[in-house]
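User: My instructor asked us to take a sequence, write out its structure as tokens, and then describe one feature of it. I'm not sure where to start. Here is the sequence I was given:
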Amino acid sequence: MKQLSEQSGGALDVEWNDSTGTPRLLKGRLSAPSEHTPEWIAGEFVRDYRALYGLSDPDQELVVSAVDRSDPEHIRVLVRHELLHTPVWGDTLRMEINHQGVIQRVEGEIHPELAKQSLQQIMRQTFSEEQAIAVAEAYMIERQLSRAASKPDVARYYLPTRAGTPLVYAVRFAPAQQEGTDGGRLVLVHALTCRVIHDEPIRFGQSVTKAPSDLQPAP
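Assistant: Let's start with the prediction itself. The structure tokens for your sequence are:
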């Protein structure tokens, strides 16, 4: 933090995430000017400040997943947290880089020390995506929840807020009708037990990787 404050000339704004002990927001002159690519600039930042986010090997744990050049003032870079090529649910850093190659804002959430805690857990054998979809569909039918006839989207994630083995399949059902505010249904299926652990409505346009509002066991 002292190094960042000096880099910003003493004009550094910081907001902390109390639950993770990592910064929720950094705002200021966070890096020196650079002519490198946005991907390289973002990578250098997380390598320099890996300890701030509790990362052991940022080259393996963080992946640049998107670069947005639509804003005339800033280039936006989205960095995703992964463990063994499995995305960590809700863990991303969003960076704003000006056209001099200076990072001016880093915002997001990173759960620290996950690689040390969960390396063996994440390598264990899991149920397949098809099995997870079948369980989620049966759950929807049993509770008479509406869904489109099309096959739902599914992806595997690491759920950092869950104790034990936190591998889940996120199964997203499209809405039965394109009306109202309900954009479908998100069902989380535990990857080792193939049991539904959470479900909630999804509004139109909401990303499937957005952390659920409440991760209590499903009824």
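For the description part of your assignment, you could build on this observation: Strands lie at 13-17, 22-27, 62-68, 74-83, 86-98, 103-109, 153-158, 167-173, 182-190, 196-203. Try explaining in your own words what that tells you about the chain.
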